[in-house]
């Protein structure tokens, strides 16, 4: 029973090979942390999985719930339960957060053969979600990401996650500094949504985040492939020793 299966994935950006034979299997309910040096391809992996323009798959396969991910358009992937958070999407002035969220949830429910939720019921759920992530309800009326601070964007994305209930959540912290407050927001959001049928890929530079989100597995991504996998203790080792010691080891061969 595998939720997300990545097999020998090779992908490029601007004709440059970035992902170079990556394998990863994620079962329902698991939390996988991906760490690794800057430029290793961690963010690229998230973009390739979500189907972002400009990210080319050269070879390999990825299946989500047994279905070929690369046969699906970006939006279909989202509707099939894949969610990529923290990429700081552009502002969408004129479209309120509530409208944006409702449209996303409606589309997802429809794609999964579920009935639409009434506007009143959705508003109720959205207000509850605001409370959970500690955002004022007035955020629902504001334009998508319009003038949000970094922390507010994170809370807002966690709210989206609460409402969309994705099956595979990819959280990429990017290289931006996260203060302890934002770390805790992210950790609480993830922890409150951990369940037997939902999986997370947490991309992070910060071992500290993994003090709050206990991963089942930690992987090191280096030069486009996973060069080491372990349990949560691997993150502590990396914190103490950095990544350079891994580069002398032969990479796991395909
Ligand atoms: P990480 O998230 O591990 O720090 P990235 O996935 O952001 O690494 O980047 C991996 C490599 O791909 C880097 O060498 C980066 O310069 C390159 N890269 C990523 N996105 C682009 C892009 N849009 N155009 C050109 N090169 C890119
Ligand atoms: Mg980077
Ligand atoms: Mg990155």
TrEMBL record:
SUPFAM superfamilies: P-loop containing nucleoside triphosphate hydrolases
InterPro entries reported for this sequence: AAA+_ATPase, ABC_transporter-like_ATP-bd, FeS-cluster_ATPase_SufC, P-loop_NTPase
Sections of the chain in a coiled coil: none
Organism this protein belongs to: Marinomonas mediterranea (strain ATCC 700492 / JCM 21426 / NBRC 103028 / MMB-1)
Keyword line: ATP-binding, Nucleotide-binding
PANTHER family in the cross-refs: ABC TRANSPORTER I FAMILY MEMBER 6, CHLOROPLASTIC
GO MF annotations, alphabetized: ATP binding; ATP hydrolysis activity
Protein's name in the database: FeS assembly ATPase SufC
Superkingdom field: Bacteria
Pfam families documented for this protein: ABC_tran
Homology family: Belongs to the ABC transporter superfamily. Ycf16 family.
Signal peptide range in chain numbering: none
Domain ABC transporter span(s) in chain numbering: 4-248
